[in-house]
Design brief:
This protein is α/β, with parallel strands linked by helices. The chain has two domains: 176 residues, 3-Layer(bba) Sandwich (Glucose Oxidase, domain 1); 216 residues, Class I glutamine amidotransferase (GATase) domain (Rossmann fold, 3-Layer(aba) Sandwich), CATH 3.40.50. It contains ten helices and 20 strands. The protein is globular, with a radius of gyration of 23 Å. Bound molecules: glutamine.
């Protein structure tokens, strides 16, 4: 190819190198892909070492490691959020998964003390195209590399994230093994990836809290955008299936007093607390792998107002008698358009899920309230007769746009309505 000067001493041939190259090596069952990029050859302030991401389809992606070292298996999913990698890293719903960020430049704002979504990082690892060589933000407390190393989470960079994303979009989500261990052969890693599965595994029990506790923190005043908090206080019991803390902060900001309970907390104990409402949270893995949670949800339905978010929505769907199914590659990102069928509005939403409820399997009376406009899948449900509302996506965002925050107000209104019904004088029948 003829080399043409573009200015800033960058040439077309330099740029073509930056887009990586597929170099299939037909010698064995596996094919190796390396990313050649002249722009990242300079000295780096962090340790680098060779790493391999071996996917179950036999492709091997050579990369450099940051964070922890070792060998880790997980399902690879891609996330299209442009910002918010710290919230993504601490979202417990990613347990068992490698998150590949499609935004090519990650790490430039470091990590801070405020943006944690849970007590630790539960994900299998992080896959990025380019790790920022410098970190600059007024809230930055640590670099991304140091943060991951301390939490024993593996990361890789200098890998062709666009090519992997296209593969996942075409072939569906894939299991992969990430390794920095040179003593393991490609075939061994491939075998590992082909013999592990995320379907049917209860990942909730590994991320849920162990004992009930109160939650009081609201969204900090400087970040608050809801100007009309409720004048009344409502007691909400929140089931922690891997709950993101911003769900709790948003509920507290809307005037709720919250008791967080573990995933195995009996429905009877919850009902004894006489809550105004119950929240079923987001969480990792396959909703069909946790029948005990579906049973708990079933025993609460109809008795108090409930709100299900993501995993909570899927468990509600199953408790109502419906079915969930695994999607081809799921939805992960902060830019998913959702159609609110009740208002006619389109919301740009934050999403993170691989499973969905099949609305055709739900009983009569259950209303589909929201649709994902990318693929028409069910994004929200309501069953007014049973005081149920649920969303497949994340109204708390974090990271993501705030378009769907109104859902917390709707939940408060549901509880308010129920309270007012109880205080109405009962007509006696003769
Ligand atoms: N964020 C979530 O709650 C995810 C729910 C479920 N683990 C899924 O992947 O669909």
């Amino acid at each position: 190819m003829a080399t043409k000067t573009l200015g800033f001493s960058v040439t077309v041939s330099d740029l073509s190198k930056c887009f990586g190259s597929r170099s299939p090596q037909p010698t064995s069952k596996v094919r190796v892909f390396t990313l050649r990029c002249s722009a990242v050859k300079g000295e780096r302030p962090w340790k680098t070492s060779d790493a391999r991401l071996v996917l179950e389809d036999g492709s091997i992606w050579k990369a450099k490691s940051f964070g922890a070292t070792g060998t880790q298996v997980g399902e690879v999913v891609f996330n299209t959020s442009l910002t918010g990698y710290q919230e993504i890293l601490t979202d417990p719903s990613y347990a068992g998964q490698f998150v590949l960020m499609t935004n090519p430049h990650i790490g430039n704002t470091g990590v801070n003390f405020d943006d944690e979504e849970s007590r630790q990082c539960f994900l299998a690892g992080l896959v990025i195209r380019s790790l920022s060589i410098s970190t600059s933000n007024w809230r930055c407390a640590e670099t991304l590399g140091d943060y991951l190393a301390k939490r024993n989470i593996m990361g890789i960079y200098d890998v062709d994230t666009r090519a992997i994303t296209r593969r996942l979009r075409e072939d569906g989500s894939l299991i992969g093994v990430l390794s920095t261990d040179n003593s393991k052969t490609d075939e061994e890693l491939l075998k590992m990836s082909q013999s592990w599965d995320i379907v049917g595994v209860d990942l909730i029990s590994g991320v849920s809290c162990k004992t009930p506790h109160e939650w009081v923190d609201k969204t900090k005043q400087e970040w608050e955008f809801n100007s009309k908090p409720s004048q009344e206080t409502f007691h909400v019991v929140a089931y922690d299936f891997g709950i993101k803390q911003n769900i709790l902060r948003r509920l507290a900001s809307y005037g709720c007093k919250i008791t967080v309970v573990p995933s195995t907390w009996p429905a009877s104990e919850t009902l004894k607390m006489k809550p105004d409402g119950v929240l079923f949270s987001n969480g990792p893995g396959d909703p069909s792998a946790v029948p005990y949670a579906v049973e708990t949800v079933r025993n609460i339905l109809g008795k108090v107002p409930v709100f299900g978010i993501c995993m909570g929505h899927q468990l509600l769907g199953q408790a109502l008698g419906g079915k969930t199914f695994k999607m081809k590659f799921g939805h992960h990102g902060g830019n998913h358009p959702v159609h609110n069928l009740r208002t006619g509005h389109v919301e740009i939403s934050a999403q993170n899920h691989n499973y969905a409820v099949d609305p055709a399997t739900l009983p009569e009376g259950v209303e589909v309230t929201h649709i994902n406009l990318n693929d028409g899948s069910c994004a929200g449900l309501a069953f007014p007769a049973q005081k149920i509302m649920s969303l497949q996506y994340h109204p708390e965002a974090s990271p993501g746009p705030h378009d769907s925050d109104y859902a917390f107000r709707e939940f408060v209104n549901l509880m308010k309505h129920e309270r007012s019904k109880k205080s109405e004088p009962q007509l006696s029948t003769v």
